[in-house]
Amino acid sequence: MRGPHNIWRLIRTGATLERTGAMNVVLDAFEAPPTLRFVARALGLPFKWLGYAGDPTMPPATRALTALGPAYIKFGQILSTRPDVVGDELAIQLRVLQDKLPPFSVEEAKAEVQRELGLPVDQIFSEFSEPVAAASIAQVHKARLVSNGEAVAVKVLRPGIEKAFRKDVDAFYLAARMVEIFSPGSRRLRPMEVIEHFDGVVRGELDLRLESSAASEFAANTKNDEGFQLPQMKWEYSARRVMTLGWADGVPMGDNAAIDAAGHNRVDLGDRVLNLFLNHALRDGYFHADMHQGNLKVAPNGDIIAYDFGIMGHIDEYTRRVYAEILFGFIRKDYKRVAEVHFEAGYVPADKDVDEFARALRAVGEPIFGMDANHISMGRLLNYLFEVTERFGMETRTELILLQRTMVVVEGVARSLNPQINIWQVAAPLVTDYISKSIGPKAVLTDLAKTARVVTRFGPRLPGMVEAALIRQSNAEDPPRTHGFLERVFLAVVFGVSVGLGGAATLILIDMTLF
Question: Hey, how many other C-beta atoms are within 10 angstroms of the C-beta on 219?
């Protein structure tokens, strides 16, 4: 479906913003400069009549995004947690995108449940309510199981949502391609890869079997986390377009008045939601990547309840250490170390000057740490850091997109609970503890144990691999290099086995000698 016809979709986007009155709201929220305002209006006004009208009872921005479709709604959900970026008024308008969108009928939902589960609804559920929450991709009904009378939540995908999302994402691909063509300087950001990553995430969210699996894995990882709970999965009543899990009783995280009325401590909740995210990301490498207020509740006992596991983030152990070291460096104001980590991880080209990069990072960090606690923002830091890394040729790391985005969203949630929260002060103990465990002597022993397992697995194959490497080298065009190559292979094997770095280190060293 990707092609020039998607230009129509992009034109209608601008036209819809104009027709719904959202163009000025958006430009004002982002404090757009005069040049950008002129270009945006020049492109939108002539095609205003082509825009979607949307629901006139909604505020302009919400009206435009709901009219444009699910991908745009997802974007609005993220912005709704960032009042420090878009302002309080627009953030409140966009918050209805989290779980208060127009629902589809209960009859359609029941028909979908019957198709997916293969049984009439009244044989499975003794009660099946009208929709209690409706989001961009699915809606939720409260039901009660016939088997034991337990209250459950039944999530059902919107009819035709797969096709609707495909249309939006295809337009995004075209927009990314146009950015690459008309703005060569942006190619380092790899916009096509960013959209491909987003596309993959969305495809996973459109298969509720994958969400069920994610919920189960997340529950296993977090079962011992104090002050945190997840609804229990009901596998026997779940399928591709239907998911059933235990009902979560609690106060919506976005309703501060209700939280206060229930006697919960919002300062503690703000600290805890931030620490939970960091713990899941650093300790497990598997985290809830859609932690806006619409997916969080506060239980009567004060526990934070998370649900909606359609978007989960995964980062490998090495990337976790890099991320933690960067955060740790900023917390300690060790800008030289932050710079070195960027170079060691290959995030910044090796031909750049590490000291100059460190000075640029200091210019990012110092103004932020000099602010009052309620102005110290991870979102502001990421924005400044983006500007610096752009100057030093850093490419977009697609594997970090969800992590960075979720960090910004979680900060927004924490700040909505406690506007005076000091993000760095809350994060410091957890990040410091992770650093001590993942980079200290104990971590070295753990790494050696892991590589010893690699030796056990690949050890019997090493002689053959070395022999194959020697044969490849003997057929190369540079015979004089063979003698030195043999010495290096021998030393690599001896070194790898002797220190326990095993097959992985040996193969890396052998590969280095071949090129």
Answer: 17
Q: Are strands 312-314 and 304-306 parallel, antiparallel or unpaired?
A: unpaired
The token pair at 263 is 């006697």
Concerning whether 290 is annotated as a catalytic residue, the answer is yes
Domain of residue 491: give its range: 442-514
* Consecutive H or E run containing 245: strand 242-246
Q: Which pair of tokens denotes residue 434?
A: 């992770």
Q: What are phi and psi of 289, to 5 degrees?
A: -100, 15
The DSSP secondary structure of 131-160, one letter per residue, reads EEEE-SSEEEEEEEETTT--EEEEEEEPTT
Residue 106 lies in a domain: no
Domain count, the chain: 3
What the block records as the tokens of 17 is 């913003």
pLDDT tens track for 254-300: 899 999 999 999 999 999 999 999 999 989 999 998 888 888 999 99
Tokens of 173: 């691909």
Asked if the structure places residue 359 within a domain, the reply is yes
3-state helix, strand, coil in the chain (%, to 5): 65, 10, 25
Task: Render pLDDT for 184-223 as a digit per residue (tens, 0 to 9).
Answer: 655 655 667 767 776 777 777 889 999 999 999 999 999 9
Domain check: are 473 and 449 in the same one?
Answer: yes
What CA–CA distance (Å, rounded) separates 182 from 422?
A: 40
Same domain, 432 and 507: no
Bridge-based pairing state of the strands 228-229 and 304-306: parallel
CA distances from 85 to 33, 79, 90, 104, 138 (A): 15, 8, 10, 32, 28
- State how far the Cα of 71 lies from the Cα of 165, in Å rounded to an integer: 6
Predicted structure pTM score: 0.69
Mark which of 439, 455, 486 sits at the end of a domain. 439
Instruction: Tell me the three state secondary structure of residue 371.
Output: coil
Q: 């004060």: which residue's tokens? A: 302
Among residues 290, 334, 353, 478, which one is catalytic?
A: 290
Residues 6+ apart with CB under 8 A from 192: 173, 176, 177, 180
